[in-house]
# Entry
Amino acid sequence: MNRTDSQNSEHRKQIVQLLRRHGISPTVQRIKIASTMLAQPQHLSADQVLKLTNQTGRPVSKATVYNSLGLFARKGLIRELFVDQERAFYDSSTHPHHHYYDRDTQEIRDIDEGAIKLELGTPPPDGCEISGVEVVIHIRRTSAS
Ligand SMILES: [Zn+2]
# Structure
């Protein structure tokens, strides 16, 4: 076994543990999809995950990729982002933070949680409390740039 193989097998072991910790049974396809999604801090659409996942090895079906991403998000392994009605995006970072969304380039950038000060003019309805705030700021290119 060369060095790359042993690094790959260590990486695979970590993904398997991560899936188990989130209550997800680690099938071959799920390991492959999770490896793509968690390779680095990133925001990817389901189609981008499909394309990247299928660059190597045995192809995974579109339905499996979509279903697995939904499952990962429900289990808290990744975060589903509601920035665009046309397509689902997923975030490999699950800590609380906000986003810029460029509709022209479909680029998503992080905004630190503390960078947005929210002033709420009305309290939550009786018997409710705020469980989380997710801000998406839509941006577009100015003609000057
Ligand atoms: Zn993010």
